[in-house]
Amino acid sequence: MKLALPKFQFRFMRAAGNVIFPGNFHPVGTQRDAEGMIARASADGPSAEAGAGGLWLVVGGSGGFGSAARVALACDHGAHTINVSFDRQPDPNSKNKIRRIGSPGWHRNAAIERALKAKGLQAVSHNIDAFDPAARAGVIASIRETFPGQKLAGVVWSLAAPKGLDPRTGKAVSSALKPLGNTTVVKTFTGPTDDAPPSIVNLEIKPGTPEEAIRTQFVMGGQIVEAWMQDLMSAELLAEGHTLLTISYRGSPLNAPLYRDGLIGLAKADLEFTTKALDVQLSKQLQGRAVAVEGPAVITEASGGIPGVPLYMALLLDVMGARHEDPLASMRRMFQEYFFGGEAQPDKEGLIRMDDRELAEDVQSALAARFEALNEGDTFDVALYERFMAGYARTRGFEVEGVDYAAEFDTDEVCAP
């Protein structure tokens, strides 16, 4: 089947906090963008010898920090990688053109793995729900079969799933992006309509219920990480000196009501607590360690779906300029400075703060002034709006340099394994 997808389609959903709902993605652009990540990470000189970095498992490795960490580990340090993610696969029998070509995550994985294998590295993916105990057991069995005699040098936990399977009921549990305890007002922008430019709106977000808090902690907290680590330890698949990294985002005072002080903040605090507990266990049993990593604010597939984040990101990109790091730059810096011979150390809380540049006093002061100056109904800077939207579209395979979006592509060919 021949198909052309010339433009990124999306709409703003005011009832959900004026979040951005994407309507399509471009598989060719997604794959080219992923190949560009490999090219960037390989441009600094010869890659490390294949296998030099050991074998790493990346949970949530199909986008954002997960795919970036995988590329950094492989290209900079010669690591073999196993990805676990849950991405819609292409369905050649579907009459829906988007379902027919799958999802950005599936195409990102495919492109990364082709490129890494061409470099002599082993790279495999398991398309499963990480919350499913049976699927987890299948991954463990596959590691033993595919990598006989090898153990995991490290695990990168970068799962950002909106929901996960509750094995007690067999039903999916969803998280909620809501404040805790009190209604909060989120400042964000609308999209342009007809001849009207983007404008600022203030939206009330009601607090989450206790049930939503529990579900959010289940999906985004530390319980599932602990389950994976305990099963991997029981299977004796963790190498001596093993490293576990759990990656999340703390946020700044400007987005605290929905992040650190919201339901997701409860879940992330639980993730950090679990990471510290696992650090004690890994240190005692394997002379290993577990460290929580606080990443910077970046544009990912999830960025458009969180109330207030589009405005925060649009302003942050402008304030930081060249100082802003995308996921790949952040993950490359982290591994180079904190691991593989790097001498940087976690902070006094035991956290690796890759959000250090975002939270610098001059950056946050400038952002606070920008936010304060924006009032409901004000026109929002079109250039800042378009810059954010171009970055968001890129996570969906659009706005990628060198891709002819007017051209048709063969869906069977682009979806070939």
UniProtKB/TrEMBL annotation:
InterPro entries: Eno_Rdtase_FAD-bd_dom, Enoyl-CoA_Rdtase_cat_dom, FabV-like_NADH_b, NAD(P)-bd_dom_sf, Trans-2-enoyl-CoA_reductase. SUPFAM superfamilies: NAD(P)-binding Rossmann-fold domains. Pathway: Lipid metabolism. GO terms for molecular function: enoyl-[acyl-carrier-protein] reductase (NADH) activity; NAD binding; trans-2-enoyl-CoA reductase (NADH) activity. Its EC number is 1.3.1.44. It is an enzyme of class 1 (oxidoreductase). The keyword Manganese does not apply. Residues 100-339 form the Trans-2-enoyl-CoA reductase catalytic domain. Keywords: Fatty acid biosynthesis, Fatty acid metabolism, Lipid biosynthesis, Lipid metabolism, NAD, Oxidoreductase. The keyword Lipid metabolism applies. It comes from the Bacteria. It catalyses: a 2,3-saturated acyl-CoA + NAD(+) = a (2E)-enoyl-CoA + NADH + H(+). Residues 24-90 form the Trans-2-enoyl-CoA reductase-like NAD(P)H binding domain. Monomer. This is trans-2-enoyl-CoA reductase (NAD(+)).
